[in-house]
Amino acid sequence: MSLNVETKQTTPYEGQKPGTSGLRKKVKVFTQPNYTENFVQCILEANGTALVGSTLVVGGDGRYYCKEAAELIIRICAGNGVAKLLVGQNGILSTPAVSSLIRHNKALGGIVLTASHNPGGPENDFGIKFNCENGGPAPDAFTNKIYQLSTTIKAYTLVPSLQIDISKVGVSNYDIGGKPFVVEVIDSVANYVRHMEEIFDFGKLHDFVSGQSNGKPLKMRIDSMNGVTGAYVREIFLNRLGATETSVVHTTPLPDFGGLHPDPNLTYAKDLVETVAKGDYDIGAAFDGDGDRNMIIGSKAFFVTPSDSLAVIAHYLDAIPYFQKNGVQGFARSMPTASAVDLVGKKLGKEVFEVPTGWKYFGNLMDAGRLCLCGEESFGTGSNHIREKDGIWAVLAWISVMQHTGKSIEDILKQHWSVYGRNYFTRYDYEECDLEPCNEMMATMEKNITAAEFVGKSFSSEGKTYKVKEADNFSYTDPVDKSLATKQGLRIVFDDGSRIVMRLSGTGSSGATVRLYIDSYEKQNVLGQASVMLKPLIDIALEISQLPKFTGRNAPTVIT
Ligand SMILES: O=P([O-])(O)O[C@H]1O[C@H](COP(=O)(O)O)[C@@H](O)[C@H](O)[C@H]1O
Ligand SMILES: [Mg+2]
């Protein structure tokens, strides 16, 4: 039986502008009449003529409204000439899994349903993001096109009568006005697990994790925070690598993440940090809702900053078979990320790139064969195996390094610092501030720090003096396609290389979140406490930005 396509009239919604990584809004916003329909129609139209006859991947982190949105997307895709959809069972796919599926199936792209690390549930956040055929988040030019379309949209098309049960794996064939349309509901984890098996030596890792190699099972606590990684974690760590059931927690993806805030940092992954601090563990790890972020801690909750995590993995790439097979190209980090990886790159004679915040900026460099490993201070680490950051990949990389060196996480770090020196790093987040005063703060600060007389100025606190070497609002020209991204964060660089960086988050769903990043390099004094070492610079940053005055906040919500 042939199903009919219907065209529905609609009117534009304001504010459908994708942020750092897709459109993230409250569930209540997405569930307004035609809100999701409008945005999905614009995503599809932004693909132009390539859409008709294409294959797309659809899935998300299992948060509230994911399943309904996935079913709606299937009907809208059917109405717009898409030939085939690969849909995660129950609408579930981690963000790295979507990226991998797009690449393996040579799909035109994928629609990822997630608000990442933002809380879920009817009162909280939902999100929709489009990834292109390289598997990575759509670049700025593409998301701008989506936004433009959203301001003028008049109609969307769908197949309202299309019934589909996405709780069962299998292939359904439809006839849409005489044209075939295929929906393949796939196992959410199988392809991703296969991909990890190609990258890492699962045999070696199994013997190390299960204790078969040295009689000592690796003591792990892997916390999925009720996000999407649960199913992947169980299959990889329990079934493939032989870890014990007690090594994994919160592995059932829940629509509201069981009330957890699935952001893997020292504040929101408190349960993990406290348990590992008290207990007898070799490694603790947590992920965000959609599985692309990771946090790594060692015994007694020894914290590995994401900037250091990237540098250590870069140093030990030969512990991972993938890099032996595919070679080692350059490294990259986002601008606010401390430059520890730069030192490894220099030693190995590799190119190192500094890009704006947002994984989409790594994609071109990877596609051009110039980049194989990158990371961000925002708990993102990944490689060119896909075009998203990858939380589980990062844990497998760390376990590979532990197996390779036979050392604890703390010793790996201390040895790294003794060779390269240490980049002390901290990030202060001021969440849910009022937007207006924050915009004013940023504008005032930009004006002050870009005035001619700012360079050369000295600032002192607690007996330490820092002299400004340069200051700007970071802009970036993509080395591959020469596209320009401006206003990517205020940055003050001092004579000794220390930096103050400030920007507004692009991943929130309302209000403003201010991020203040402080980083300072020490060649010798590598065993200090970051909070103590960076205190003078933090005070200077608060003075220059007048943050307490503008935001009314005397303390950050999250300190990393
Ligand atoms: O949210 P995710 O895990 O998709 O992560 C996204 O947001 C992070 C933080 O962005 P912001 O500082 O603007 O909040 C970015 O670093 C990352 O590249 C992007 O993919
Ligand atoms: Mg995420």
Compact overview of the structure:
Its EC number is 5.4.2.2. By secondary structure, the protein is of the alpha/beta class.
Poorly predicted runs are: none
Helical residue percent band: 25-40%
**How confident is the prediction overall: mean pLDDT?**
96
Task: Tell me the number of helical segments per DSSP (H or I, 4 or more residues long).
Answer: 19
Hey, roughly how much beta strand do the residues contain? 25-35%
- How does the major sheet shape up? 8 strands, mixed
What order do the strands of the largest sheet run in, or round the barrel if closed? 1-9-10-5-4-6-7-3
| Beta strands, count | 28
Q: Given the helix and strand composition, which structural class is it?
A: alpha/beta
What is the overall silhouette? globular
Ligand kinds: 1,6-di-O-phosphono-alpha-D-glucopyranose, magnesium ion
Separation, N- and C-terminal Cα atoms? 57 Å
Radius of gyration: 23 Å
Q: What does this protein structure show overall?
A:
- With 560 residues, this protein is α/β, with parallel strands linked by helices.
- It is globular, with a radius of gyration of 23 Å.
- The longest helix has 16 residues, at 435-450.
- Strand 25 and strand 26 form a beta hairpin.
- It has 19 helices and 28 strands.
- Helices cover 33% and strands 26% of the residues.
- The strands form 6 sheets. The protein has an 8-stranded mixed beta sheet with strand order 1-9-10-5-4-6-7-3, with helices on both faces.
- Helix 2 crosses helix 5, helix 7 (202-210) crosses helix 14 (391-405) and helix 10 packs parallel to helix 12 (340-348).
- Residues 20-21, 116-117, 288, 292-293, 334, 357-359, 376, 378, 380, 505-507, 515 line the site of 1,6-di-O-phosphono-alpha-D-glucopyranose.
